[in-house]
């Protein structure tokens, strides 16, 4: 199977400090891939290279190659706005726009010209909220502010917002770390439902979560990709000592 994203020999520097050290990895189409590793090992930094979110950090410099469907996303002609629609992102802290629930979801399709007629936009908003498992909770209050929802609902709204522009990949950077266990379980359920429709990459500190939601796991340490494989193998039979030490809680 051709990978959805292929990262080759990727390094990232913040000024003189190297945060990612020659990482190569493929993201498959039909999988959930989890990035795990101790704090500061570079999980978020690497995740953010996959849709050029590091462009927003002045000191960040990326080398190597990242191909999306075989196309170099760092090529000079790449439209970064379009790229971030194709490779959407959900952040640690839910960050809905200070606008209505409807507008949070409709904004992206409108600026990308995916729906112009009101009825089409309404249908797209409903479909996105349904896929994000939020429709039944908000259908009678679409004009309320997105920021008035609970944290878990806000995170699902952010997922609906990412889905609305018809992405191919969804990057999730610790999407449950600000949520309680019930809201977390809902997001995990949602990840199961979204799997197959979108390639999903999730950064998580929670190893049980990685084991529950992902089919593949990548373990990072000090900017290096130490081990990458099937989640079951990584957690039950890791090849590398550093992976074993981490998953058994010897450091972290
Ligand atoms: N904007 C930045 N400017 C300078 N250094 C940064 C920046 N962002 C991250 N770093 C550094 O890069 C390294 C990797 O950080 P990163 O946040 O990617 O790790 P992480 O594994 O996601 O950590 P955590 O699990 O704590 O979120 C760390 O040493 C961090 O201090």
Automatic annotation (TrEMBL):
Pfam families: ABC_tran. SMART domains: AAA. Keywords: ATP-binding, Nucleotide-binding, Phosphate transport, Transport. PROSITE patterns: ABC_TRANSPORTER_1, ABC_TRANSPORTER_2. One of its GO terms (cellular component) is membrane. One of its GO terms (biological process) is phosphate ion transmembrane transport. Residues 5-247 form the ABC transporter domain. GO terms for molecular function: ATP binding; ATP hydrolysis activity; phosphate transmembrane transporter activity. This is Phosphate ABC transporter ATP-binding protein PstB. It comes from Sphingomonas liriopis. The lineage of its organism: Bacteria, Pseudomonadati, Pseudomonadota, Alphaproteobacteria, Sphingomonadales.
